[in-house]
């Protein structure tokens, strides 16, 4: 008799197949194998465990073991082996299909979540299936490496193992998007994103991680994600060296770039005369960038540019002559530094406007 936890329908026709194949010593027919595969798929869809199902087939084999009419014990065992193998094949096929469907549903949810393309109420309902409660605040961290990463890649698996090992199930969602690692966590659990940033930086061999600000509601994930992406873009354009960037620390840059025309006018009016220098504006712009990044310390700026302090001082004097603004004068320094930031944001002088 089949085991009590496995319905008899998944063994339908097995006793007849076993008896007939055992009596003749033949192999199972295609229709018989297909029937076992179909039953295996149905059992998987119903949620029964493969171990219990195989046990039920072995128990049925004992219960219906052919007697003297069998060609041999070997033929009976061969028939049982073929039946169980076909059943397991159907079971595994159904499981693979279920996994693919689950992955597709997860990917569709993530795309809708990060792009805000779905009804927010429906999105919140779908989010609970993946462990997120979008009525709360969430923050998003994005890690970018030297190469792109997809779900199943060794790098996201390594980071996910570290996160689960450290925090367990804390309503954390780790995924990939456009070749980057993305971690979504509750807004009040900054330690999760800090831990993610540390391990993502190591796993990507020195990539860069940006963390958006915590934002409330279903649309908050999109907003925090976009802040993190903008932070990565700013870091590249401004050539920032920090491996971990927080959008909250970079708010001044979006403010400066909000009025593009005003920023373009400032860059041209303040730095435009540098184009008259021998070699163009680029060398003197790089000098100003290094000078301000070094905290206006001439010796440190010269070291970064591989120049002598005397050569750096000459360049600063030349900038003063051309622009009328003295980098060493606190009154002029703010205007010059803001213009330099604007030039980097607008990719001037490579981009003309």
Write the SSE topology.
Blueprint: H1 14-24, H2 30-45, H3 50-63, H4 73-115, H5 120-129, E1 138-144, H6 154-167, E2 173-177, E3 180-186, H7 190-203, E4 208-211, H8 220-238, E5 244-246, H9 252-257, H10 260-271, H11 282-293, H12 298-305, H13 309-323, H14 330-346
Parallel strand pairs: 4-5
Antiparallel strand pairs: 1-3, 1-4, 2-3
Task: Describe the largest sheet.
Answer: 5 strands, mixed
Return the average pLDDT rounded to an integer: 88
Question: Could you state the oligomeric state of the chains shown?
Answer: single chain
How much helicity do the residues have? 55-70%
What does this 3D model show about the protein?
It contains 14 helices and five strands. Helices cover 60% and strands 7% of the residues. The protein starts with 13 loop residues before the first helix and ends in a 7-residue tail after the last helix. By secondary structure, the chain is an alpha+beta fold. The mean pLDDT is 88. A five-stranded mixed beta sheet has the order 2-3-1-4-5, sandwiched between helices.
